[in-house]
């Protein structure tokens, strides 16, 4: 255990992570969500699996009578952020696929999405064009 609470501790990457309704609630905007996905990916081993359950296109959820913020994200936003963070091989399900609708009394979200994503290995530095690495080819 780290003796200084202000010094982050480096954790061993895990093979599977799940998160339910956490990141869209914690993010202020898309960029914040994207950064969260990138940071979370640091704790997942290469080839590891992330299962993410989140609201689609919602701006709030209620607990008792208190309203809490949700970052309004589309399916495309989730996938773009996950790709940016190094994830791929997506499998997607929605609550509406099973004829289940979000409770309109608790949220204004249009649906609930479950995304299974695999962490890709890091990309190696490769030239954009074949001839850019070989000056003789120009």
Structure explained in plain terms:
It is globular and about 40 Å long. The chain contains three helices and six strands, in the order E-H-H-E-E-E-H-E-E. The C terminus is likely disordered. It is an alpha+beta fold and 138 residues long. The strands form two sheets. A four-stranded mixed β-sheet has the order 1-2-6-5, covered by helices on one side. Strands 3-4 form a two-stranded antiparallel sheet. Helix 2 crosses helix 3. Strand 3 and strand 4 form a beta hairpin. 19% of the residues lie in helices and 33% in strands.
Task: Quickly describe the structure.
By secondary structure, the protein is α+β, with helices and mostly antiparallel strands. Helix content is 19%, strand content 33%.
The largest beta-sheet arranges its strands as 1-2-6-5
Beta-strand content estimate:
25-35%
Note the run of SSEs as H and E. EHHEEEHEE
- Low confidence ranges: 126-138
The description of the largest β-sheet is: 4 strands, mixed
Gyration radius over CA:
19 Å
Report the count of strand segments.
6
Helix/sheet category: alpha+beta
| Helix segment tally | 3
Distance between the termini: 55 Å
Helix fraction bin: 10-25%
Shape: globular
Average the pLDDT over all residues and give the rounded result: 83
């Amino acid at each position: 255990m780290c003796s200084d609470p202000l010094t982050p501790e480096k954790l061993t990457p895990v093979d599977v992570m799940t998160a339910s309704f956490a990141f869209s609630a914690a993010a202020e905007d898309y960029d914040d969500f994207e950064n969260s996905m990138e940071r979370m990916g640091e704790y997942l081993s290469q080839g590891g699996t992330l299962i993410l359950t989140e609201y689609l296109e919602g701006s709030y959820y209620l607990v008792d009578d208190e309203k809490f913020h949700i970052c309004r994200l589309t399916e495309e936003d989730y996938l773009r952020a996950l790709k940016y963070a190094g994830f791929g091989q997506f499998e997607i399900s929605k609550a509406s696929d099973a004829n289940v609708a979000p409770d309109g009394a608790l949220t204004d979200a249009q649906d609930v999405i479950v995304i299974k994503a695999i962490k890709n290995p890091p990309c190696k530095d490769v030239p954009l064009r074949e001839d850019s690495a070989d000056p003789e080819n120009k």
